[in-house]
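Worked Example 4.2. Consider the chain below.
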Amino acid sequence: MRRLALVLPFPGLPAHACTGEALLSCTAKSGAKAIDVCLEGDDFTYAYGPTGKKPELALRVPLTAGTLYPWQGFGRAISESIVFDNGGFRYEVSYSVDRLEENHPSDGSVYVTKSGQEVAFIACDPGSVTVSLFAAQDAMTALGLCWNSESEGWTGTCP
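Applying the procedure from the previous section yields the following structure tokens:
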């Protein structure tokens, strides 16, 4: 069963919480930082910065750029990743849910590279992760795109 979550802004949310649908929301670095990845219209957005304040970094990529790598249907965890490029830096945001654990714990992280070299790895604080599985894939499908596992990319030619 696919679950979707809608997060609407209200005064108690951090300053850079989603104005659309939250795909990943968590804190990092012992609560000092917040990470939000959202589906806003036909774009994915990424925000990172001090919890409750304006983000240090905010990025946007159109869904049609095809930077979503969806769950492949196997393995212990249901996972997705979305890539955001910014001036030579690459931010790969991953999130997952353990489907074999009774409480289905969630994880999230950001892997930052520049010219293929690791710059940073930021893990979400345990217990702070909220994910909306399949919402990103559903948005891609709604645009008429399908995942092609042979080419590992999105295509407008759907079976």
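The first strand starts at residue 21 and ends at 28. The chain has one helix and twelve strands. Compare this with Example 4.1 before moving on.
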